């Protein structure tokens, strides 16, 4: 599975937490109507 990821590794909980924290703060206040995908590049390789 890891070889299918562009980054060739699984993410760790801290990396996902940073994404969630970013979305929960005013740093993301201008982001509207989009998805933020934190999948290590898996989605790119399946298109």
From TrEMBL:
Under SUPFAM superfamilies, the record lists:
NAD(P)-binding Rossmann-fold domains
What domain of life does the UniProt record list for this protein's source?
A: Bacteria
Q: What is this protein called?
A: Short-chain dehydrogenase
